[in-house]
Amino acid sequence: MMRTMLIFIFLISLGISPIQETSQIKKIEGVFLGRAENGYSFCGKTALGMEQIVIFDEVLSVILEKYPLHEDKYIGENFIISFIESIMIWRDDKEKTSTVIRLQKLMPGQHLKG
Predict the structure, then answer these.
(1) Which of 16-20, 57-61, 92-96 has the highest mean pLDDT?
(2) Distances from the Cα of 57 to the Cαs of 4, 13, 65, 91, 97, in angstroms?
(3) Which tens digits make up the pLDDT trace of 21-34?
(4) What whole-number distance in Å separates Cα of residue 43 and Cα of residue 33?
(5) Which carries the bigger pLDDT value, residue 50 or residue 90?
(6) d(CA 103, CA 66)
(7) What is the rounded end-to-end Cα distance, in angstroms, of the chain?
(8) SS3 string of 37-64?
(9) What is the pLDDT of residue 67?
(10) What span, in angstroms and rounded, lies between the C-alpha atoms of 77 and 106?
(11) Which of 57, 73, 90, 70 is nearest to 81 (CA)?
């Protein structure tokens, strides 16, 4: 009886807990546009050279200590942004978050290499 109860509780917990899938680290070059309602906004370039606005949900605190992005002085600055996208999969829904894990300010004329 106790064993059956433990198995039942275990199976229920599997249905409730999210499964997290994390992709590899990605890099883009982007110009900081400022804080957005849901995060930090950058204008980045796609592989085809098209401009696209990207909003990152989170930025590591060590990065915010070096580059306090809540201040207007970084708006218009060009950065190489390294980030991870995490996907939490629930039974009937999924939530995607992107976290900046490294930020490197580029000098004028400097660009992300290949």
Answers:
(1) 57-61
(2) 42, 28, 17, 23, 6
(3) 656 788 999 999 99
(4) 7
(5) 50
(6) 9
(7) 61
(8) CCEEEEEEECCCCCEEEEEECEECHHHH
(9) 95
(10) 8
(11) 57
Task: Go through the chain and tell me how many residues it has.
Answer: 114
- Which residues, including other chains, have CB under 8 Å from residue 4's CB and lie 6 or more apart? none
Cα–Cα separations (whole angstroms), residue 35 to 70, 72, 92:
7, 9, 31
Q: Read off the tokens for 68.
A: 């306090």
Token duo for residue 9:
């509780």
Instruction: Write out the two tokens for 77.
Output: 């600055």
Structure tokens at 85: 């996208």
Which tokens go with 110?
A: 């400097």
Selected residue with higher pLDDT from 1 and 92: 92
